[in-house]
Write a structure and sequence with these properties.
It is a single chain. The protein is of the alpha/beta class and about 240 residues long. The chain contains 8 helices and 9 strands. The strands form 2 sheets. It has a 6-stranded mixed sheet with strand order 5-6-7-3-8-9, sandwiched between helices. Strands 2-1-4 form a 3-stranded antiparallel sheet, covered by helices on one side. Helix 2 crosses helix 3, helix 2 packs parallel to helix 4 and helix 3 crosses helix 4. The longest helix has 16 residues. The radius of gyration is 18 Å and the shape is globular. The structure holds adenosine-5'-triphosphate and magnesium ion. Magnesium ion (MG) binds next to helix 1.
C-alpha cells in the first residue's frame, strides 16, 4: 500500500475550551476519494483544516509524505470568496504565492478557467459571478495549484441541482486526473456518487471509517446507522 499523503495520529483539537477533534486516526492515501459525513457541528470542517495543517493540533501528530516534494494541498472552503478584482486575477493570486512569473500565472489561470468552463468570464469582476460560477471558480483556483490533495468543504452547498451536477462532474474529473480528494458533504447521494470511503464524524470522533458501499449497505456502529436512517431519503 502506498504511503499516506497526510496522516493524523491521535489528532486532537481543542478550541475555546472544547474538544472539537478527539484523537483522530486518519491516513489519506494517494488516489483515495474520502467523504466526511455527520451532523452540523460534528467537526468535519475542523478535520479538513487539521489535514491541511491550518489548525494546530492540541495533541497527536500530523505527518505528511516524506518525499522531497511535500504534498501540495489545496482547500475549497464552504463559502467561496472572491476578491474585488477580475475572475482571472482571483485565480492568479494563489499562483503568485508560488513564485511564478506573470506569463506563467496567466497561462495556468486561463487553463484552469477553461477546465471549469469559465474562460469566457475571465475579465468579469469575480464578485459578479453567480454562486455556482463562484464555486466552479474556487475549484479552478484550487486546481491551478496542481494539488496532489484537494480538500473540499461542502463543495455544492446552496447550489441548484444542475450547478451541483456540474461541480460534481468537475470533482470526478479531478479525481480521474489522479488528484486525491477529501470532501465533507451533507448530500448522501453525492457521497455515494463521488467517494470510495466514508468517515462518519460525531462530536469530534470518527465513529465509522468504511468503504462507501459498506456505509450504505453494510452493518454500521449504532450512531452512524441512526444518522443514515435520519437522512433517508437522501437523493
Ligand atoms: N474557533 C472556534 N472556537 C470555538 N469553537 C469552534 C471554533 N471552530 C469551530 N468550533 C466548534 O467546533 C465544532 C465543530 O465545528 P466544525 O465547523 O468543524 O463542524 P462541521 O461538522 O463542519 O459542521 P457543519 O456541518 O455545520 O459545517 C462546533 O461545535 C463549532 O462550534
Ligand atoms: Mg463545516
Amino acid at each position: 500500500m502506498s504511503a499516506p499523503l497526510v496522516e493524523l495520529r491521535g489528532g486532537t483539537v481543542v478550541l475555546g475550551g472544547r474538544t472539537v477533534l478527539d484523537r483522530i486516526d486518519l491516513a489519506v492515501r494517494p488516489g483515495e476519494r474520502i467523504a466526511l459525513v455527520g451532523a452540523n457541528g460534528a467537526g468535519k470542517t475542523t478535520l479538513l483544516r487539521a489535514l491541511h495543517g491550518l489548525v494546530p493540533l492540541t495533541a497527536g501528530l500530523r505527518t505528511i509524505a516524506a518525499d522531497a516534494d511535500a504534498p501540495r494541498i489545496a482547500m475549497v472552503f464552504q463559502r467561496p470568496f472572491m476578491l474585488r478584482d477580475s475572475l482571472l486575477a482571483n485565480i492568479e493570486l494563489g499562483l503568485r504565492l508560488q513564485g511564478r512569473s506573470a506569463a506563467e500565472r496567466r497561462e495556468i489561470a486561463m487553463h484552469a478557467l477553461e477546465q471549469v468552463g469559465l474562460a469566457a468570464q475571465a475579465q468579469r469582476p469575480g464578485r459578479t459571478l453567480s454562486g455556482g460560477q463562484q464555486q466552479r471558480a474556487a475549484l479552478a483556483r484550487a486546481w491551478a495549484l496542481k494539488p496532489q490533495l484537494l480538500l473540499l468543504d461542502e463543495p455544492t452547498a446552496s447550489l441548484d441541482p444542475s450547478a451541483k451536477r456540474e461541480v460534481e462532474d468537475l470533482i470526478a474529473g479531478f479525481a480521474a486526473q489522479g488528484i486525491t480528494v477529501v470532501m465533507s458533504s451533507h448530500n448522501l447521494g453525492q457521497v455515494k456518487r463521488l467517494s470510495c470511503r466514508v468517515l462518519y464524524v460525531e462530536t469530534g470522533r470518527v465513529l465509522a471509517d468504511v468503504a462507501t458501499d459498506h456505509f450504505f449497505h453494510g452493518t454500521l456502529p449504532a450512531e452512524a446507522a441512526l444518522f443514515l436512517k435520519g437522512e433517508l431519503p437522501w437523493v
